[in-house]
TrEMBL record:
GO terms for molecular function: 2-dehydro-3-deoxy-phosphogluconate aldolase activity. Its EC number is 4.1.2.14. It is an enzyme of class 4 (lyase). It catalyses: 2-dehydro-3-deoxy-6-phospho-D-gluconate = D-glyceraldehyde 3-phosphate + pyruvate. NCBIfam families: eda (TIGR01182), PRK05718.1 (NF004325). Pfam families: Aldolase. Signal peptide: none annotated. Pathway: Carbohydrate acid metabolism; 2-dehydro-3-deoxy-D-gluconate degradation; D-glyceraldehyde 3-phosphate and pyruvate from 2-dehydro-3-deoxy-D-gluconate: step 2/2. It comes from Lentzea alba. InterPro entries: Aldlse_KDPG_KHG (IPR000887), Aldolase_TIM (IPR013785), KDPG/KHG_AS_1 (IPR031337), KDPG/KHG_AS_2 (IPR031338). This is 2-dehydro-3-deoxy-phosphogluconate aldolase. PANTHER family: 2-DEHYDRO-3-DEOXY-6-PHOSPHOGALACTONATE ALDOLASE-RELATED, 2-KETO-3-DEOXY-6-PHOSPHOGLUCONATE ALDOLASE. Belongs to the KHG/KDPG aldolase family. Keywords: Carbohydrate metabolism, Lyase, Schiff base. The gene is eda.
Amino acid sequence: MRYIGFRSRRAAVTTGADLLTLSPVIPVVVVDDADHAVPLAQALLRGGVRVIELTLRTPAALAAIENVAREVPDIVIGAGTVTAPEHAEQAAKAGAAFLVTPGTTDRVLDAADATGLPYLPGAATVSEVMRLAERGLSALKFFPAEAAGGVDYLKSIGGPIPHVKFCPTGGITPQTAPNYLALPNVGCVGGSWLAPKDALANGDWDRIETLAREASRLG
């Protein structure tokens, strides 16, 4: 996988497939304090990671997305854990550049389509992958990766469904990430380890920068 340069990246992020080329690892982050979002994004940038997925799991998430979109224009900011149609619209209005869903329903897919943003819909079974492919979606999130079969599962479905590529997320570590990235049907992985909860709480941005630098070298 060749990860595209930053100057072309912002213009090129128009499809789900483009999202898979941004970084070997997309940080998947839960933010409890919206004020942490900007220094977090800046630390990731210093470490060479130019994309972040802020999950809609806390009341601070939308404000955090808005802060990053406004104050850190050099990072591609996305909204994760989009589980309801209204989440898609709310994230788009907050300034998200892409969406990620853990699973898919027709209403959520329709809402994501309506925003015009690129998105990675979640799938965990062959039937779900085929159904999304029928809608013309060929870049998906595989979640929960480790619990759903991990590397061996993705390897086994690469033969019958070779045109679909994935961002596996869930239970992946710095040690297991290279095994996923070596697969031809994996473009990147999602990783929560780049922004540990204690580092966020303590404002340890140097640690996050170091983790980001290590992750950026995995590709």
